[in-house]
Design a protein that fits this description.
The protein has two domains: about 40 residues, no CATH class; about 170 residues, Glutaredoxin, CATH 3.40.30.10. About 30% of the residues lie in helices and about 20% in strands. The protein contains six helices and nine strands; from the N terminus they run H-H-E-E-E-E-E-H-H-E-H-E-E-E-H. The strands form two sheets. A seven-stranded mixed β-sheet has the order 4-3-7-6-5-8-9, with helices on one face. Strands 1-2 form a two-stranded parallel sheet. Helix 1 runs antiparallel to helix 2. It is globular and about 35 Å long. The N terminus is likely disordered.
Length: about 220
């Protein structure tokens, strides 16, 4: 497993440096070890962005819980698909990845709810104990420019987002959907990180039927 690999590498560094403490190991080396460990803790490829593929590992700055973290920019931390890899289903079973843009009206309805449609946070909360997790990224503003942290704050506050949500200014989610086809709805089996469903557009009723079927499987 990767954590063991990371530990072995760290032990090798410490041994090579004699009795050197962790504090004396250069920060960039520790970061490289952590980054390499993160990369290893993921299924082997080939990777891709289509249904049936093992999802290409992507990362972007994320709040784990925007409101409790007070929407602080320094609370943003890099999160990756590999953080959700759970081969034994100890923490979760299914990951719902959703991308959004401020100009996207369907995205606004999805997050805020409308008529008989509940806000996204409520549908997610209702399935959390069954093993569903969600990871969402805002990638563009109202004019199609890369989203900023301020854009992310406004979005998260407006829709009371209480699940992992980040600012994907580099549009890393573009590996799975084009910018003009939003929102992206992608379901990943966290035991294998294989994409089991993917669609764009605002048809959430069919999506939740699929989610429930997968969680019951």
């Amino acid at each position: 497993m990767v954590r063991a690999a990371g530990s072995v590498l760290l032990l090798a560094v410490a041994t090579a440096c004699g009795s050197q403490s962790d504090a004396e190991i250069p920060a960039e080396l520790l970061e490289a070890i952590a980054r390499r460990s993160n990369e290893l803790d993921y299924p082997d490829g080939p990777f891709g962005g289509a249904v049936g593929d093992i999802a290409t590992n992507i990362c972007f700055p994320t709040w784990d819980d925007p409101a409790s973290q007070r929407y602080a920019s320094d609370a943003l931390a890099e999160r990756c698909l590999s953080d959700y890899y759970d081969p034994d289903s100890k923490r979760h079973r299914l990951l719902f990845v959703v991308s959004s843009a401020i100009w996207c009206q369907a995205c606004q309805v999805e997050f805020g709810g409308s008529g008989s449609l509940a806000p996204l946070r409520e549908d997610v909360a209702a399935r959390r104990e069954r093993g569903l997790r969600v990871w969402s990224g805002l990638f563009q503003d109202a004019r199609g420019n890369p989203a900023t942290v301020d854009d992310g704050v406004r979005w998260a506050k407006a829709f009371k987002v209480d699940f992992p949500f980040g600012v994907d200014a580099d549009f890393t989610l573009g590996r799975f959907a084009k910018a003009d086809a939003q929102p992206l709805h992608m379901l990943i089996d966290t035991r294998t990180m294989r994409i089991v469903h993917k669609a764009t557009g605002g048809n959430l009723s069919l999506l939740w039927e699929k989610v429930d079927d997968l969680l019951d499987d």
